[in-house]
């Protein structure tokens, strides 16, 4: 009876389908009635999105490697944060010197590619005497291990 009052059913016993409705007729409910009527477009409520969480920028650190070498040499020793900071700066300074010298050698020989030969020559120039010999032998051992 409420179907007749609302005008959904024009003739008793005959259900008129909306063109957009499916082929199977369902008895009209509030939801179906809303679907049959023209929908007014409403703007969705503005919801402020949370800014995506940024990952912390990772800084280059040699502390893990320094700690491993320390444990190989003296397993019972520990190292303070200040001492680790000093070791970090020492290693970074050494690598910076080696890279600068290898770069200088590349520019002098007019080569664009830095090879192990330039790095080896830079080690011989930067480190004094016996230390350079040990560094070169360790470097050669590392390159052989990497290539095999």
From TrEMBL:
Cross-referenced Pfam families: Histone
What GO MF terms are annotated? DNA binding; protein heterodimerization activity; structural constituent of chromatin
UniProt domain Core Histone H2A/H2B/H3: residue ranges: 52-125
What is one GO cellular-component annotation here?
nucleus
The signal sequence is: none
SMART domains (alphabetical): H2B
Q: Name the InterPro entries for this protein.
A: H2A/H2B/H3, Histone-fold, Histone_H2B
Per the record, the similarity remark reads:
Belongs to the histone H2B family.
User: Per its record, how is this protein called by name?
Assistant: Core Histone H2A/H2B/H3 domain-containing protein
Organism in which the protein naturally occurs: Alexandrium catenella
């Amino acid at each position: 009876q409420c179907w007749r009052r609302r005008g959904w059913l024009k003739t008793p016993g005959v259900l008129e389908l909306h063109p957009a409705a499916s082929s199977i007729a369902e008895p009209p409910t509030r939801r179906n009635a809303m679907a049959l009527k023209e929908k007014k477009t409403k703007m969705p409520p503005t919801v402020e999105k949370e800014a995506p969480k940024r990952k912390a920028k990772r800084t280059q650190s040699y502390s893990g490697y320094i700690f491993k070498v320390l444990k190989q040499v003296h397993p019972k020793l520990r190292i303070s944060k200040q001492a680790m900071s000093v070791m970090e700066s020492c290693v970074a300074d050494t690598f910076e010197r080696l890279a600068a010298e290898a770069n200088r050698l590349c520019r002098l020989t007019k080569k664009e590619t830095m090879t192990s030969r330039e790095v080896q020559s830079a080690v011989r120039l930067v480190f004094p005497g016996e230390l350079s010999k040990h560094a070169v032998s360790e470097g050669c051992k590392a390159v052989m291990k990497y290539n095999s």
